[in-house]
Amino acid sequence: MKNGKSLAIVFILALSGCFILSGMDSSLAADKVIKWKCQSHWPAASPSYSASLLKIIDTVKERTKGRLVIEAFPAGSLVPATEIFHAAKRGMIEMGGTASSYFLGQIPMAGVAAGLPFSFKDYWEGAYFFKQRGYDKMLKDFAFEKHGLYYFTDRIYPHELVVKKPIRSMEDFKGMKFRSAGVIQVFLTSIGAAASYLPGPEIYPALASGVVDGAHWGAAQGANDMKFYDMCKYHLKPPLAISGTDVYVINKKAFEALPKDIQETFNQVLEEHFWKRTNEYIYLEAMVLAKAQEEKGVKVLTLPPEDQKKMTQAAVKIWDKEAEKDPLYAKAIGMMKDFLKDLGHL
């Protein structure tokens, strides 16, 4: 009997030990540190590298209590900037910070995100179209289903010209030489300017030497960081485009291997970041432009309403040509047109 009791006690203790060890294993698993790599298309010196990518990484680490640690790599560290989309898709890196203009061949409808000329007139319009009118969801669904990627937009921001000579009407664009890129470059050429692409490091020398009369690199913050205001004393409004060009792509297998609570935290951080960063960008644009006017003698010129209308009509022709490239792209442009009509812009 005593032997029976002893055996029972031993069994209970052993069973308790199993539960304790099992609990310890679960606790250890829950506390396991997961490490990711994320390469950005921004160089380390870019303000967005710290204000966007590093901010996201720090917030994710903090909210997961150090369970997800993402190592940041600036532009060119692991793969060329134009290959980040493919590197994330293949799993070479778990996450990439890239530009939608780099993968239009894979997701043509990202052309709206890359910036169609003279579409949205204000930041809130771009943000509303992305988040409330379904465009962002279209991008997310397509990237997930066709490429095995989770897709997040960093922020909404403007593209605005800075020029050495004043532009006060649509007629003044004729014959002027600009540094531009993408569909905006096509648009500027269509209204009589000579627009050509130059990589970032070549823009300042081109402005200084007179190769170009103006350029856009984002808007006020970009112009200020790139020292364009040294030569360009005129800042033109309204924006040539308002876009959601900068994005993050995350490998589906890597994301779905995360514990569910980390997945939820990660999603929440990226969604919150979109709104916070967009609002921050609006503030910084106003602050930097005000400072440029006060300290560098920059003058803000705004095209008259009748010329803005003419330029919108010219832009619609470019949108229609873009829509011919892909059915889903055409659908996205149709959605954008309906939205702009609701606002009285078309």
Write the layout of secondary structure elements.
Elements: H1 2-30, E1 34-40, H2 47-63, E2 68-73, H3 84-90, E3 95-99, H4 111-115, H5 123-131, H6 135-147, E4 149-153, E5 157-159, E6 162-163, E7 177-179, H7 182-190, E8 194-196, H8 200-209, E9 214-215, H9 220-225, E10 234-237, E11 241-243, E12 246-251, H10 252-256, H11 260-296, E13 299-302, H12 305-323, H13 327-342
Parallel strand pairs: 1-2, 1-3, 7-8, 7-9, 10-13
Antiparallel strand pairs: 3-12, 4-12, 5-11, 6-9, 6-10
Outline the structure in words.
This protein is α/β, with parallel strands linked by helices. The chain folds into 2 domains: 33-157 and 243-284, D-Maltodextrin-Binding Protein, domain 2, CATH 3.40.190; 159-242 and 297-342, D-Maltodextrin-Binding Protein, domain 2, CATH 3.40.190.170. It contains 13 helices and 13 strands. It has a 6-stranded mixed beta sheet with strand order 8-7-9-6-10-13. Strands 2-1-3-12-4 form a 5-stranded mixed beta sheet, with helices on both faces. It has a two-stranded antiparallel ribbon with strand order 5-11. Helix 2 (47-63) links the parallel strand 1 and strand 2. Helix 2 runs antiparallel to helix 11 and helix 12 (305-323) runs antiparallel to helix 13 (327-342). The radius of gyration is 25 Å and the shape is globular. The termini are far apart.
